[in-house]
Amino acid sequence: MVVTRILDLALGLFNKRKPDVDEYGYGSASLLEGEVYTLVCFVSEIKKEGWSSDGKERMLALLEESQEWIRKQAREYPEVTVDFIKLDRTKDIIDIEFEKDDIPEGTGSEEEPVNLVSKILYAAGHKSTLEWEEEVKKKTGATNVQVLIFIKDRAGRSYAMASSDKMDKEEYFVEGAVLFEKQNDDTDLYSSVIAHEILHIYGAWDLYGTFQTEGDEEKLKKHNEYLGKSIMLKTPENIDHSKVDILTAWLVGWNKDPEPWFESFEPKPKSQT
């Protein structure tokens, strides 16, 4: 579960406000609040059997469970309302076939393609991703637009594709996530994985393997007290065993009171690890 996002943060980041809108709050899915429109795409390989009806229903049930869990988590913040617009099965669910080499492998290498949303929208017949996003918001009243891509017959690490003002707007502004039918250990996809990737779209950080607590008693204490059950740390089979921690809640726009220690859990680029 890897998020691809530019994480360069300016000085003064943690002063009781979200990071600059150019970095967070940019793209079709900005702060996780208001009405969220979701386009679901089922991807399969050309000349191979596509998604079955049962397979699709299984993924859609997991999606619904993840969305209901996010709604419930958001209720911990009275000023925040999050709702996911009900899918119109005649318009909001599409099937796309790609050549084998055009389908991500899910290796977790951070070199996975992050332009899959635009490729799918073009393959679906849309001439402009930006015009499509604007039209969707106009028709649905959505605050945010996201595209969730389910990959058939692949086991891999799901990942999010979040935008930045440093990216080409037409190709990357519409944000989404790639979700593999099987996880990289060949277990079934969990609803917690879907929720984890949705949160990534809105700016959440990975909290697994991105920090060191050895020898840092204060940091270890913060981790155990606030982050131990975070869905950004682990994605259990039962999503109700997870929570949106206060750091993640700040990153997605729910928690308006960040703590100075949040900064120490910022993931470092591979070049710095």
What does this structure look like?
- Strands 1, 2, 3, 4, 5, 6 and 7 form a 7-stranded mixed beta sheet that branches.
- The chain has a single domain, classed as 3-Layer(aba) Sandwich (Collagenase (Catalytic Domain)), CATH 3.40.390.
- Helix 1 crosses helix 5.
- It has 7 helices and 7 strands.
- The protein has 273 residues and is α/β, with parallel strands linked by helices.
- It is globular.
- Helix content is 27%, strand content 17%.
- Strand 2, helix 1 and strand 3 form a beta-alpha-beta unit.
- The N terminus is likely disordered.
Per-chain topology:
Elements: E1 2-4, E2 34-45, H1 53-74, E3 82-84, E4 93-98, H2 116-123, H3 129-140, E5 144-155, E6 159-161, H4 169-172, E7 175-182, H5 191-201, H6 217-227, H7 246-251
Parallel strand pairs: 1-6, 2-3, 2-4, 2-5, 5-7
Antiparallel strand pairs: 6-7
Helix pairs in contact: 1-5
Return the average pLDDT rounded to an integer. 87
- Strand pairing plus helix content: what structural class? alpha/beta
Number of helices: 7
* Estimated share of beta-strand residues: 15-25%
How helix-rich are the residues, as a percent range?
Answer: 25-40%
Succession of helices and strands: EEHEEHHEEHEHHH
**Can you tell me the number of structural domains?**
1
Overall number of strands: 7
The CATH topology name reads Collagenase (Catalytic Domain)
CATH classification, class level:
Alpha Beta
Morphology call: globular
Unreliable runs, pLDDT <50, ≥5 residues? Answer: 2-22, 210-214
Radius of gyration: 18 Å
Describe the sheet with the most strands. 7 strands, mixed
Q: What is the terminal-to-terminal distance?
A: 18 Å
CATH architecture label name: 3-Layer(aba) Sandwich
